[in-house]
UniProtKB/TrEMBL annotation:
Gene3D superfamilies: Endonuclease/exonuclease/phosphatase. GO terms for molecular function: catalytic activity. Residues 96-221 form the Endonuclease/exonuclease/phosphatase domain. Residues 1-29 are annotated as: Disordered. SUPFAM superfamilies: DNase I-like. This is Endonuclease/exonuclease/phosphatase domain-containing protein. It comes from the Eukaryota.
Length: 249
């Protein structure tokens, strides 16, 4: 699961204004991973580049992963459903994964998800860059107690979705390492899950602290282990963060 992914030019498409054609942009591709994202066009404000991108390993094709653009159409959030034929006890047959990039200035993703929360299916796992600091997950931050504060709005969203914030096994480890050495490292990349998933033996995640795994990003990746199926191998995947490395127009 990526936030602010680095899109790349994948082909040229016919254009009435450019004889060489316009560059069509898409996600980086890998034979083992299937990308789930909507098409975009940076020349159209309503179809600007998505700021979230979810990959599902092809070994999980047996679960028929599905991008739920029929439910969520927003550049900062995406919903992918895995269809589990034999889920573990308490895990639903439709395992819904919510990927979130919450802009630190507008908090548009949280506001949009609150707005449509009554229409969303049951969420099992939610992860992303929320750009919200609070002492609940970051001992160096201050508590936000104003009802309209970003933290309280996020708590409202988690309540609406019936999910809970989950601490990593290396609790308190910063997830964002600023380039400025004088700035404080912070925790703004969060994981929340349903009670059914939290109670599953083997469910946990950790913040990866090897700087080589950051791929030049100022965010550390989170590695989440999710035991979801009673018949298939456990799902293990890493949520990585990467800043844009090019612009596509």
């Amino acid at each position: 699961m990526f936030q602010e992914p680095g899109w790349k030019g994948v082909r040229r498409q016919p254009s009435t204004k450019n004889k060489e054609g316009n560059v069509a942009c898409g996600p980086p591709l890998h034979n083992s991973w299937r990308p789930f994202t909507e098409a975009f066009d940076n020349r159209d404000e309503d179809r600007a580049a998505r700021r979230v991108l979810t990959y599902i390993n092809r070994r999980l094709d047996v679960f028929k992963p599905q991008l739920r653009s029929d439910i969520i159409k927003h550049r900062d959030t995406s919903l992918v459903t895995l269809h589990l034929p034999q889920p573990r006890r308490g895990i639903p047959h439709e395992f819904n994964i919510l990927n979130v990039y919450n802009d630190g200035e507008t908090h548009a993703a949280v506001h949009e998800l609150i707005r449509i929360s009554e229409t969303l299916p049951r969420i099992s796992l939610c992860a992303g860059d929320f750009n919200i600091q609070d002492r609940t997950w970051d001992e160096g931050a201050v508590n936000q107690i104003r009802p309209s504060s970003p933290f309280m709005r996020l708590q409202e969203l988690f309540t609406d979705l019936e999910i809970q914030y989950v601490h990593p096994v290396n609790r308190g480890t910063p997830t964002r390492i600023p380039d400025d050495e004088n700035s404080r490292a912070s925790v703004i990349d969060l994981v929340a899950a349903s009670a059914a998933l939290i109670n599953q033996e083997g469910f946990h995640y950790k913040v990866k602290v090897d700087d080589r795994e950051r791929w030049g990003s100022d965010h550390r990746p989170l590695q989440i282990e999710v035991p979801i199926s009673g018949s298939e191998p456990e799902m293990r995947y890493m949520r990585r963060f990467r800043q844009n490395d090019r612009e596509c127009f």
